[in-house]
Structure formats: C-alpha cells, structure tokens
Predict the 3D structure of the following.
Amino acid sequence: MIKKINCPQLSNERLHYLAKLKQKKYRLQEELVIVEGKKTLTQLSAWGIKPRELYLVEGEPTFSPEISYTVSEQGMKRLCASEQPQKIAGLFSLPKPRKIAFQKAFYLDKISDPGNLGTIFRIAAAFNVDCLVLSPESCEVSSPKVIRASLGAVYQVPFFFYKAENLQELKTSVFALEMQGEIPLANFIPPSEPFIVALGNETKGLSEDILRLAKKIISIPMPGKMESLNVSAAAAILAYSLSQN
C-alpha cells in the first residue's frame, strides 16, 4: 500500500556515497545501483524484487516506510543518472547473470546502446523469450539507463555472457536475423529443439563468427523504402512472431 508518512532525512554523508554509484566503477565495486521512477519500482515490486532503501522527494508517498528516506529535489538529482529524475528512487543490488536451460533465446552481438539493450530486455519479458545471451562486448547491463529502458526487466529475464565463436558449446541451433536474410520471418518455423536467434550491433551488424554458425539467416521484409530497422524494433517484431508459434 502506498501512503504518505514522515520519513527521516537522508544524511549528506550517505548522499555523497550513493551519488558515486552513477559511475560504473563504483557500481561494480559496491554491487549496488540506484533505480529511479515509480513505474519501474512498481513493476519490480510486482515481481517480488525489493529495494534495500527508498529515496523520496519530501511529500511523495512510499510503499515501504521502514526503509524510506527523504531528499531534496537537488539531492535526487545527485542520486539519479537522468537529467530530470522522478521523485522516487531505490537502492538495489546489481542484476546478476544466471545461465539457465532454455528453449528460445536471443543472442545480442555487441549491442552498444543502453536504450536498445534495456528495450530488448523489456521485449523479452513481454513475449516470454526464455533468456538473453550477451556477447562480452555488449554495454553494461547494470547501467541505470539500461535498467530504466527495461522497466526493471533486467532483474526478471535471465541473462549470461558468451563469446560468439563459442556458441556451439551450448549445443543449440543458431539462427541469425539480418535485413538481407535468405528466409522471411513469416516463413521461419522454429525448431523443436532449443534455439538462439542472433541480433547484431547497431551499426556493424552481426559478426562473421555468428554468420558462420547460423543454420539459416532470417529477414524482416519491409514493403516501405527503408534500409534497416533499429535493433530493438527488429527484436520486437521477432519476439512477437516467435510468440505466435
């Protein structure tokens, strides 16, 4: 239940410590991250993922008064990575990689944009993609921008890291998604055995290692005059199509 309550003020010393978590090296060192926004925190709560502490601009309601602290609007700006932060944020442990057995997974090959990576996590949660396998060169999963774009799905969708050239070790069928692929997505029939579909870097596309491993290369035909799709848009179309099979 969300309610208004008088919470203690966050100390300047604690605020100074938490503000450092905007930097990657401190996040990884402390294994902590600030997650902002009521919508993301509500989604995480629905999944049973609770913050260690909550920070609120004075007057905002809280759903966990026992771990809540008030800050000024300026203090919230110091805590959060976005330029115009919302009025509530939480302190969470970093999302952790976990390798699972899967039927359907995406391989993300050197995805460099945090917004794209977070959006693909959100898509995976929405369309029941079992897990995401990331190349080691992909951007930081625990970045506040990734977490915000994912609406917290980085904590819900299993992920782990794997080099492209070693994917055959997973003993799974590998397919690739490219604009000039040989088989239209509408004609692709997912195999009964576990499989991975690989999506490539925003500018360079898929690596040669992936293209060599791929059993088939899938395309998304576009009737309009557009050269390509954003990788997260392509992931959404792919995930929806696979969810219908």
User: Anything to note?
Assistant: Residues 164 and 210 are 6 Å apart (CA to CA). The chain has eight helices and eleven strands.
